[in-house]
Automatic annotation (TrEMBL):
One of its GO terms (molecular function) is UDP-N-acetylmuramoylalanine-D-glutamate ligase activity. It comes from Myroides indicus. Belongs to the MurCDEF family. This is UDP-N-acetylmuramoylalanine--D-glutamate ligase. ATP binds at residues 108-114. Pathway: Cell wall biogenesis; peptidoglycan biosynthesis. It is found in: Cytoplasm.
Length: 443
């Protein structure tokens, strides 16, 4: 069988390695330039590849196309593959058929990286043979090629879920749903919501769907659609019969006639959203029969994801926090909500159709100054010019951090939480976060 892989990033090259190892004929095609480290891998494994073009004859001669999640459906070569009726799937679907253990999968608009890392941490500390993959770390396909026996904890974006057919996680988590990536879904919110719920479409009565029962969109969808998986809600506002809730500053998790009680003040990561992430992860740990003592110790020792409310340094009694991973308004809402001192907020980048009014009450209450870091800051300026005393524009991270230092006094916080994508000034949100940390360390 001929397998064609579109896109030669982490996902595509991992897929190519797995396909090669399984004896398929493999061709990798990338319309952009392939990074040198990936070219070296393709050469080492003697995999046929091309860059800066898509050779139609070679691609359309494939029996199966595995498309990288970053490639939209409207790309001409993708349309031609569909017209020809060639089966096209995602890396997740391809690797799933070779993975002997059912995975734990996490999706959501926000919180999925932290929850994924937390689930992995709890299961690993509990002694299980687990791997970490999906939207995080090494590709799922590459890891399955090396160890098909592991139970993988997968962070899955809506793009990765779009390309599944039979993929079935034993435990699925939906952390929350808020508008994001609507440009990929014909600007229809309902299409994006449907994509998220694909995570449960192949689950059976033996499987579990863990979800935020405080989230209106999730509740609405579940009230109108039947699923086969066992529903396991978590909530900050009300008790649930099976799942997780709050009582007397404790997280209570009830599953299969077992109850776990965890004091909120023992969780290392702060903020209401992280209490929810801990609820979801603890529920998985309980389903996987991890000891209660291990769960407690693991939650108190977990440091969280890089670029997600990451405490960088305290300088002159001012705390600098890197939340570069906050690429939408909803994520920044959680960040601002968790601020306990007057805050200088660094915001901006590539706007995804943001409604900044959602943040207005928090900005009024917590923010003393705003630094707009982006090429086009008009929407942010229009939203907040009359709300804060100081609003400054810059296109340099180094300058943004220096301005922030001048605006703060002892006891304040400087928060990088952009609410936007990073592509106007940076390669990605990681690069943006690293530049922030470097600039803070150079103060």
């Amino acid at each position: 069988m001929k397998v064609v892989v579109l896109g030669a990033g982490e996902s595509g090259v991992g897929t190519a390695l797995l396909a090669k190892r399984k004896g398929f004929k493999v061709f990798v095609s990338d319309f952009g330039e392939i990074k040198e480290k990936y070219k070296n891998v393709l050469r080492d494994y003697k995999i046929d590849w091309e860059e800066k073009q898509h050779t139609e004859a070679k691609i359309l001669a494939g029996d199966l196309v595995v498309k990288s999640p970053g490639i939209p459906d409207k790309v001409p070569i993708v349309k031609k593959i569909r017209e020809k009726g060639i089966r096209m799937i995602s890396e997740i679907e391809f690797a799933y058929s070779f993975n002997k253990e059912l995975s734990v999968a996490i999706t959501g608009s926000n919180g999925k990286t932290t929850t994924t890392m937390l689930v992995y941490h709890l299961l690993k500390q509990g002694g299980l043979n687990v791997g970490l993959a999906g939207n995080i770390g090494d590709s799922y396909a590459k890891q399955v090629a090396e160890d098909p026996e592991k139970c993988y904890v997968l962070e899955l974006s809506s793009f990765q879920l779009d390309g599944i057919e039979n993929y079935r996680p034993h435990i699925a988590i939906i952390t929350n749903i808020s508008p994001d990536h609507l440009d990929r879904y014909d600007y229809k919110y309902e299409n994006y919501i449907e994509a998220k719920f694909r995570i449960t479409k192949n689950q059976t009565e033996e499987d579990y769907l863990i979800y935020d029962d405080d989230d209106d969109e999730i509740r609405k969808w579940l009230s109108k659609n039947k699923i086969r998986a066992q529903k396991v809600p978590f909530s900050l506002t009300h008790k649930v019969e099976q799942g997780a809730y709050i009582e007397d500053q404790n997280i209570i998790v009830k599953m299969n006639n077992e109850t776990t009680v965890l004091p909120i003040n023992e969780i290392a990561i702060e903020g209401k959203h992280n209490v929810k992430n801990a609820m979801a992860a603890t529920t998985v740990a309980q389903l996987k029969r991890i000891r209660k003592q291990t769960i407690r110790e693991s939650l108190s020792g977990f440091q969280g994801a890089e670029h997600r409310l990451e405490k960088v340094l305290k300088i002159g009694n001012v705390q600098y926090i890197n939340d570069s991973k906050a690429t939408n308004v909803n994520a920044t809402f959680f960040a601002l909500e968790s601020m306990k001192t007057p805050t200088v907020w660094i915001v901006g980048g590539v706007d995804k159709g943001n409604d900044y009014n959602e943040l207005m009450p928090l900005v009024r209450e917590k923010v003393k100054g705003i630094i707009c870091l982006g090429i086009d800051n008009r929407k942010i300026i229009d939203a907040y010019a009359n709300v804060v005393d100081v609003l400054v524009e810059t296109q340099s991270m180094e300058e943004a951090v220096k301005i922030a230092q001048r605006l703060t006094e002892s006891g304040d916080t400087v928060l990088l939480s952009p609410a936007c994508a990073s592509y106007d000034l940076f390669e990605n949100y990681e690069e943006r976060g690293k530049q922030f940390k470097r600039a803070v360390q150079n103060l």
